[in-house]
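User: quick one, fold this
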Amino acid sequence: MQALDAACRAFDNGRGVWPIMSVAGRINAVEDFARRMAARREQEVGLMSWEICKSLSDCGKEFDRTVDYSRDTVEALKDLDHISTGFVMEVGILGQIRRSPLGVVFCLGPFNYPLNETFTTLIPALIMGNTVLMKTPKIGKMLIFPLLECFCAAFPASVINVISGGREMLAPIMSSGRVNVLAFIGTNRAADAMQAQHPKPHRLRCMLGLEAKNAAIVLADADLDQAVVECLRGALTFNGQRCTAIKMIHVARERADEFLELFCAGVTKLRIGYPGSLAWTSPPCRSRARWTIFADWWTTPWPLGNGDESRWRSPSGHALRPGGAICRGRAHARIPRGAARASGARGFL
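Assistant:
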């Protein structure tokens, strides 16, 4: 609550140092922060890789995208400010449209992209003159610590306030009614719960990035070698712990068996290792809850498919379909009996 108090004081109903600062001043501050952040790339990438168990190469790409996003946001604001300097004539009325900050923005990002997805809400909120209360993910908070010095050097006091902790921290903040904007990337249930805790939910502005059910569609005339590579990368990169991961694969019936044979062979070639190595594909699973689900999938006996669907379910409720396809609910591809066991591909389709 002290961090929330600080953010409210820094905004001061739109009269704080940061909200009234010129666009040029805010742009200079964000550019200064981006330069300071870029200088800490090696440290940031290492911390991210070892804490969330993502490969060094993927963490490096995430860091570079985040720095580029900050610079692109600056360029977008320059264009917007240039457009806003002109006058607009509507129904005989001459006017000028200017944008003002909204207030205190509560930013929350997910653990799988703790830097990039958190900063895609943080940077736009900052550059438009809002003050920010940022909660780090439960897993992925260590990488923020090297950036605290960058925040302090680039921005006025209390413009950015960083907190960490569990879900118990959300209720007091939201129920206070002093959060003007909720910028959240996560599940729809968590977003609904936070909105419901706000005393004036219709006044609360929400910028939400929620779940996805991305599908891969493989047509009959597709290059299967290329399709398999893309499906493996899309489904299994970072163990599929991505909202943009491929979660359903639809294959033309006449090419299904051929696709599955290539796909299973590709799964057996996946390499595993520790985050400090560049030469591997599948990282360790950082979350014990997810590891439990994976272990349940792997150890549950496979059914013979005698029509009794109640026997196709593991203790955690995940459906086990005849032929070996494992998914939540219903199968989207049929794996020939024995092929999955022979290839070691259980649980990936």
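User: anything notable?
Assistant: The first helix runs from residue 2 to 11.
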